[in-house]
Amino acid sequence: MDTTPAILLRKTRFSDTSLIITWCTERHGKLKTIAKGARRSKSVFSGKLDLFFTTEIQFIRSQKSELHLLKEVILKETQEEIRKDYKRLQLASYFVELIDLVTEPDHALPELFDLLQRALNYLNRTPPTKRALLHFESELARLTGILDTETAPFTTLERAHGRLPSLRSELIGQLN
Q1: Is it the case that residue 106 has pLDDT exceeding 90?
Q2: Which pTM was predicted?
Q3: Dihedral angle, C-alpha 100, 105, 108, 110, nearest 10 °
Q4: Could you tell me which of 102, 114, 113, 100 has the C-alpha nearest to residue 141?
Q5: Residue 17 has what DSSP assignment?
Q6: For residue 108, is pLDDT > 90?
Q7: Final residue of a domain: which of 31, 62, 77?
Q8: pLDDT class of 119 with cuts at 50, 70, 90
Q9: Percentage of the chain surpassing pLDDT 70?
Q10: With left for phi above 0 and alpha for psi between -120 and 50, is residue 47 left, alpha or beta?
Q11: CB neighbours of 15 closer than 8 A, spacing ≥ 6?
Q12: Runs of H (alpha helix) within 51-129
């Protein structure tokens, strides 16, 4: 069984009772787990699986696929203030989508985990700004090794990954 700090990126319905959870982890990069029974009202995962939650997870690695079995979730941080403000929620969602876009499954990049954790903590304490968005993009481009000093970081990220989350244009227009 493996244990690692993790931030929940995405939840997808798998069956009537189970979810597929995509995590950004410190030790394993992007990781997908199946949370069996998570949709049941008396699940051991009840209240522990929501977007932006920082946790420590235990999982059993699958030998056959990239979908691992989630065994335990210990909740560390809920980022409650992000959920109270729509713009914070939008910017946090953009950060999560970008991390999901630029990371490969089971490829550890602890710096990206740290960047996302710092960004979510910042948004939990501080109103969102355009400066925060641009800083995140710049740091992400730098940490992934594609930063080009002659090109805007968002352009570099877009070229390298074929697209950016569509939420970006709305955020750029709304944030100060």
Answers
A1: no
A2: 0.93
A3: 20
A4: 102
A5: S
A6: no
A7: 77
A8: very high
A9: 100
A10: left
A11: none
A12: 86-102, 110-125
